[in-house]
Write a structure and sequence with these properties.
By secondary structure, the protein is mainly alpha-helical. Helix content is 58%, strand content 5%. The chain has a three-stranded antiparallel β-sheet. Strands 3-4 form a two-stranded antiparallel sheet.
Length: 436
């Protein structure tokens, strides 16, 4: 009688009984490996075409972004730097310039889309910086600082001045004269500090070391970002004082704009565009310079030279952004570019250049729509494949935040700040009738 053949299945069962305990404990990772071996585990749902831009869409996105920034504010008044909604982790890295930029964004939001919650947040942020003002050791000046840092970044001060101007513009009708004085005094002090940082070549010193040595002007470092921020702060402050003849500007804002603007436009456009030039400087200056051009044109409407210079400056910067920098093909968040494009559209419309304005509108709208689909809980969140893949699992604290790329879960406060301001400008460009 022949023995029964040993069936392979019985061999597998026997092997399973004899497996060591260590291998049995590894079973979960094998299940995970099987999951990762499936193509569908890696493929995101296909993108859906985005709808046309509407005022309601913009207003919803603006309110959500404002909510996110308010929710990131510490009780002291400054802001959490970044959040990853997949890791559910905060990044406590800090940056004084971006902190001041968020404050400006909230003050700007409070000016144009007032709510009591935004006003409280703006006041808390202003108080945070006002409490950290310090005197300079080598000049009779007072300037805002950040925490215990001994280096004052000039861009921080410029953005703080922008925050003060927008807060006063939006709230002064509700403030008594004594209530306005701390803000007016801070604006005066910090504009004087910016004047102290001016360089003859049109730039501003990049920073001031409270415990260090002040470098000679010919070797003092500058920043293209800060140059643009200072120009915009001077233009907005000059417009504020111009509308209030009873208030005297603390420094010659208009004279500095006339001197610095042509120097900086030459430096960051013509010289950068020529062979051997560095357009990284143009990128840093871009949106700030375009916005400064638009605001300076409003400040000096009768000066035809300034009108021509500012219009050509804004257009040159924006044509570079579209055709040179190729912003539409960039994978990172480009809310900063929309700020400059929107300002240039407003400048072109004011000059009667309807063809240029329309061309810029046609390039700006799809760019902005794409960025709006990167907002957690925003009006276009359903069009983002990553958000759909994580539907129901994104923590509520991420609501209103705007990610760094389409497939990223990383939200940084300066990205939200730039896009919030870009969307406020977009309301002026695309739906001016919706403004209060």
């Amino acid at each position: 009688m022949h023995p029964r053949p040993f069936h392979p299945l019985r061999l597998l069962l026997l092997a399973a009984l004899l497996l060591p305990a260590a291998f049995a404990q590894d079973a979960p990772w094998r299940l995970q490996l099987s999951h990762y071996a499936q193509r569908k585990s890696w493929e995101l749902p296909p993108e859906k075409p985005l709808p046309p831009l509407t005022a309601d869409m913009l207003e919803e996105a603006i309110e959500a972004a404002g909510t996110y920034l308010r929710n990131q504010q510490y009780p002291e008044g400054n802001f959490r730097y970044a959040y990853d909604f997949i890791a559910d982790a905060l990044e406590e890295k800090d940056n004084q310039v971006r902190q001041a930029g968020v404050l400006w964004s909230l003050c700007n939001l409070n000016r144009y889309r007032f709510t009591e919650e935004t006003r409280r947040s703006a006041l808390l942020g202003l108080d945070f910086f006002l409490r950290s003002q310090r005197g300079l050791p080598d000049a009779p000046l007072v300037v805002v600082t950040y925490k215990s840092e001994t280096v004052v970044r000039t861009g921080t001060v410029a953005l703080f001045c922008l925050a003060l101007v927008d807060f006063l513009e939006g709230q002064e009708r509700y403030l008594t004269e004594p209530q306005k004085q701390p803000f007016l005094l801070a604006l005066e002090n910090n504009l004087k500090f910016l004047q102290y940082q001016e360089l003859e070549n049109g730039s501003w010193r990049e920073e001031y070391e409270l415990n260090g040595v002040r470098l000679p002007e010919d070797i003092a470092p500058f920043s293209s970002y800060f140059d643009g921020e200072c120009l915009l702060a001077y233009a907005k402050a000059a417009l504020y004082y111009q509308a209030r003849p009873a208030l005297a500007p603390p420094i010659p804002l208009e004279a500095r704009l006339r001197d610095a603007l042509p120097k900086l436009l030459r430096k960051y456009t013509v010289e950068c565009f020529e062979e051997g030039g560095d357009t990284d400087y143009t990128k840093g200056f871009y949106q700030w310079g375009a916005m400064a051009c638009q605001q300076t044109a409003l400040l000096l409407p009768q000066d035809q030279g300034i009108q021509k210079l500012t219009l050509e400056g804004a257009l040159a910067l924006s044509w570079w952004q579209i055709f040179g920098h190729k912003v539409e093909s960039r994978s990172g968040n480009t809310g900063y570019a929309v700020e400059g494009l929107a300002a240039t559209i407003l400048a072109a419309e004011r000059a009667g250049l309807q063809e240029e304005a329309e061309f810029l509108r046609q390039r700006t709208e799809p760019l902005l729509l794409r960025l709006m689909s990167w907002q957690v809980g925003g009006p276009l969140a359903a069009y983002n494949p990553l958000f759909r893949a994580w539907e129901g699992r994104i923590p509520p604290r991420a609501f209103g935040g705007i990610t760094s790329t389409a497939d990223s879960s990383f939200i940084r406060i300066d990205v939200v700040q730039h896009q919030l301001h870009a969307m406020l400008l977009a309301l002026q460009v695309f739906f001016p009738e919706s403004l209060p």
